[in-house]
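Handoff note, outgoing to incoming analyst
You'll be picking up this chain. Sequence as last confirmed:
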Amino acid sequence: MESQIRALAASRVVLGAAMLLAPGPILRVWLGREAGGPLPSLLARSVAGRDLALGLGTLLALQHDSSPRGWLEATILADASDALALLAGARHLSWPRVLGAAVPTAAALVLGRRLVSQSEH
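Most recent structure output, in case you need it:
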């Protein structure tokens, strides 16, 4: 289970760092034409910072032999918030873009919840 937690956290760190450093390419894949301008980049970098912090917090908890449960729960809340935001804005995106964002978000939610439930035992 620890290897799955580590992989989930590391992927969040990588994606967060990538979007923090170069939000443009990621935003273009996700938003298409709407990705231009400074406001989408600013918002993407905010989300990227959050994801980077959640991933690093989880990895640091594991490194220090602490329970990562609180970090995983915070990650689930962030992913749920992302899912709600996606639902609220779905009418402004094409279905392929909605699905492209919804599938990894749902997968992260399911995996995170499974890892939390396994850590209860």
